Amino acid sequence: MTEFPAFDRSPEGRYFIKMHGLLNNFVIVDGRIKPYCPDAAEIVRVCDPKTGVGGDQLIIIERPAKAGSNATAFMRILNIDGREVEACGNATRCVAWLLLEEAGVDQVTIETLAGLLDCRRTGELEVSCEMGRVSTAWEDIPLAAKTNTAHINFDGGAFSDGIALNIGNPHIVFFVSDIDAIDIESFAPAIQENELFPDQVNVGVAQVLSDGHLRSVVYERGAGLTTACGSGACVAAFAALARGLMQTRDITVSMRAGDVRISISEDGVATMTGPVAFCCSGYLQSDGSPAAAQGMP
Fold first, then answer.
1. pLDDT tens profile 9-55
2. Does residue 5 register a pLDDT over 70?
C-alpha cells in the first residue's frame, strides 16, 4: 500500500490531510471520533490559502448517518463560501483512497447527501467511484418551474441551448465547437444565479473531440472556475450521449488539469475513474489556520 499519513487519533489538536484530484484541492478532517462542526467563518479561513491551509473545499469524514448503513463513512462536503453541497467526484476519490488505505481493502462505500457511492482501488493512486444515476427530470435538478431540460435557452449565442442534469448536485452543460474561445467566467455567474435554479447550478461547457473523448470546463457553485470537476465530467459524458454526440459509453473527459474516465451504464449510472495525490498533513489551530504541516516523505 502507498504510505499515507494515518488518520490522527490523539485527543490534542485537529488533524488534517490535504489531497488533490487533478489539482482540485481538499482539506480533509476526520470527525468520526472527535466531531468537527466548523461555522461558515472557519470554513472560509481553512480554505483560504492566506489564512489557512488552502483548498477548494473542506471535507469532513463522519460516521455513517443512517442506522444500519453498510457505508464505511459519511463524507460532508463544504464549499469555500460555507455552503454544504451534495456531491464532488474528485473529493470522493480522495476520501475513498484514504479509507481504502486505512482499512487495507480494495473497496469501500461512502455515504453522501447524494446517496451511497461504491468506490474501489483500480491502480496506484487511482480510484473508481460509482457516482450514481444522472437525472434530467426538472424537479430533480431542481428547476423553479417545469421546463424541457434537454434544451434550456439563454440569450448568448453558444449558450442558448443547454441541457440541465443532476448527479446529486445540479448542472447545466453547453456544447461548443471551440472550448478555448469561451470565456466561461464572464457568462457563468449570471446563469448560476438565474431564478430558474433555486439552488444555483454548476455551469459547464464541453467540446466533443471524437467518439469517446471530450473536453470539459466547469464553473462551480461557491467555488468558481476549477481545474477539474468530477461530477461535471460525469454529466458532460451523459449529456453527449443524450444529444447523440457520442456512441460509446466509455468516455475520456479531458479537463484543465488532466483526464478522468467516465462510463455511463444503460440505466444512466455514471462511474468515474481517476487519480488522487497527497499534498501535506498537519494540525489546525482553533482559528482554522495550520499550526504545522508536513509534506509527503
1. 666 678 999 999 999 999 999 999 889 999 999 999 999 999 899 99
2. no
Chain centroid offset of residue 73 CA = 17
Would you name the residues annotated as active-site residues? 88, 229
Q: Cell numbers 516523505 correspond to what residue? A: 297
For residue 90, give the amino acid letter.
N
Distances in Å between the Cα of 272 and the Cα atoms of 202, 242, 262, 265, 284 are: 18, 18, 5, 12, 31
Neighbours of 13 (CB within 10 A): 15
What's 256's DSSP letter?
T
Q: How many CA atoms lie within 13 A of 293 on its CB side?
A: 18
In contact, 87 and 220? CB cutoff 8 Å: no
The DSSP letter of residue 198 is T
Q: Which residues pair with 88 in a beta bridge?
A: none
Q: What is the 3-state secondary structure (H, E, C) of 230-253?
A: HHHHHHHHHHHHHCCCCCCCEEEE
Across the strands, what pairs with 219?
203, 225
DSSP letter at 134 equals: -
What's the CA gap between 91 and 21, in Å, rounded? Answer: 7
Contact 190, 200 (CB under 8 A): no
Domains of the chain plus CATH, in order, are: 14-125+276-295 (3.10.310.10), 133-273 (3.10.310.10)
Peptide bond just before 49 cis, omega within 30 deg: no
Enter the C-alpha cell of residue 265.
451504464
| pTM for the structure as a whole | 0.89
The phi, psi pair for 92, rounded to 5°, reads -60, -45
Rounded to the nearest angstrom, the gap between the alpha carbon of residue 63 and the centroid of all alpha carbons in its chain is 20
Average pLDDT score, the chain: 91
